[in-house]
Amino acid sequence: MDYKMFRAINRLAGRYSVMDELMIWISNRVRYVYIFLLVFMWFRDYSSKKASRHAGVSALLSLFIHGFIKRVYFKPRPFVKRRVGILIPSKRDSSFPSKHTILVFAVSTSVLLRERMLGAFMWGLSVLTGLSRIWVGHHYPSDIVGSALIGSAASVVVDKNSRFFDALVYRVMDMFNKRIP
């Protein structure tokens, strides 16, 4: 089932040059849109700043989870086991979880929990990012769904435990400020 869904999406790659370029751009560059939005939010108001901070902590937590899973579980990427349309080069590391997807869902869910309109826009970009990773031939749909769930769950954990994570962030910032004269 996973391969059939992958194939249904990936077989479109290479047929529509405009869509190929869009999917490559989303896959490689959407992170800069997220960075821009988080920096913009940092300078707006207290609520936006808090959402931006939580998004950063969620991204770090998601990266930690991603690294842990990559060390204990290996799933070959689609192009390793089968002949598929691959639009951009990739490492031959584990297909699950998708770092691109886990990060964009961690950030967009954090924003969605605090700022609905912007968060919904970012969540839409996250879905497109996941789709782009299948389109370019790097991940199976189950990798994307699992990564989206992990990234979103990390955001919810950070939001529900915001006192702990905020105190941790302030402690790290204090340590950093003491080192810089």
From TrEMBL:
Keyword terms: Membrane, Transmembrane, Transmembrane helix
Pfam families for this protein: PAP2 (PF01569)
Key word Transmembrane helix present: yes
SMART domains associated with the record: acidPPc (SM00014)
Bilayer-spanning residue ranges: 21-43, 55-73
Residue span, Phosphatidic acid phosphatase type 2/haloperoxidase domain: 55-159
Protein name: Undecaprenyl-diphosphatase
